[in-house]
Design brief:
single chain, alpha+beta, Arc Repressor Mutant, subunit A, Dna Ligase, domain 1, 2 domains, 6 helices, 15% strand, binds zinc ion, Ferric uptake regulation protein
């Protein structure tokens, strides 16, 4: 999905929010944001830790967890609960999309269906409400896994 913001501009906002929260600036927080931004996909805390360890061997998974919680609270990243492959994270500065998740292999596919988007707005309207956001995940057995499990 298309990025809505440059990495530099996200890091700029991150520094502001770190200051606002009375925290010390840490290279690791910026590293987590960079890794997620550059990957463009949905990473597990383990994958993020591994990738940061390439540059900083002292990175621990528990500090990555703490950072992920902070970044999620401040809306720099989104959490995706995948069942099969646990919690995954993606950068928030991507165009809106929903997810198809394979229950066998854990593959994640991003999609946007304009009709579904519109219908959700209409459903909220029917209840005299204004849709603020939504979170839709389709759990599937993907084409690859269907093929592998034939016969
Ligand atoms: Zn699959
Ligand atoms: Zn996504």
């Amino acid at each position: 999905m298309h990025r809505l913001e440059t990495l530099e501009s996200i890091l700029e906002r991150l520094r502001v929010s770190i200051r606002k929260n009375g925290l010390k600036n840490s290279k690791q927080r910026e590293e987590v944001v960079s890794v997620l931004y550059k990957s463009g996909t949905h990473l597990s805390p383990e994958e993020i830790t591994q990738s940061i360890r390439l540059r900083d061997k002292n990175t621990s998974i528990s500090s990555v967890y703490r950072i992920l919680n902070f970044l999620e609270k401040e809306r720099f990243i989104y959490t995706l609960e995948t069942n099969k492959n646990g919690r995954r994270y993606e950068i928030a500065a991507k165009e809106h999309h929903d997810h198809i998740i394979c229950l066998h292999c854990g593959d994640i596919i991003e999609f946007v269906d304009p009709e579904i988007e519109e219908r959700q707005i209409q459903v909220a309207k029917k209840f005299d409400a204004k849709l603020v956001s939504h979170d839709m995940r389709l759990f599937v057995v993907c084409a690859k896994c269907l093929l592998a499990n034939k016969d």
